[in-house]
Request: fold
Amino acid sequence: MCYVTDRKALRSADSAASVVARIRAAAAAGVDWVQIREKDLPGRELLELARAAIRTAAEVRTGSVRVLVNDRLDVALAAGAGGVHLGGESIPVREVVRWCSSGNAPAGFLVGASCHRLDEVREAERAGASYVLFGPVFETPSKHQFGPPQGAAKLAEVCHTVGIPVIAIGGVNEKNGAECVRAGAAGIAAIRTFQEVRDPAVLRKAIERLHARV
Reply:
């Protein structure tokens, strides 16, 4: 399970601190990955946030939560993150993989990619991506710009066509997460499912139910 951050949705005066607090709660509740998706932050602020996220996750569950940084390979490496996640406007996956494979990144460093079509997923696999996020699978306000929901059937087609892990994103929640895994997804990623639950005990129970179902 991957918590994708969105500090703007928190509507907090100190949004960075709020993101770190949500990461702490999500890590304590059992998420496996945290993706720092704060594309508009200047490099220095993003680096500070990434370092705080890694520190916080380690305090809660040492070595159990992998923190990824969107787009900024330089920030991911400087912060000591577990990987970088690339979007459609990022540096091409192939170039990042080639550079990382030349001894410039630590062992186990992941290079992931966001994909919205089967041909994009295939290309990411050929380029050497460690995994892909595929969606939107279901209806969600944050993914309208990527087109209509693709549904579990399309997710299944993607999962059974490629050999790298496919993580479902877009409207994925406690009710439909198991459907994604039955379709072949290696996991699920979400913003609202992990970020909007403010009570840590409620969040922990929700993630426990998700783990049981997926």
Q: What stands out?
A: DSSP finds ten helices and eight strands in the chain.
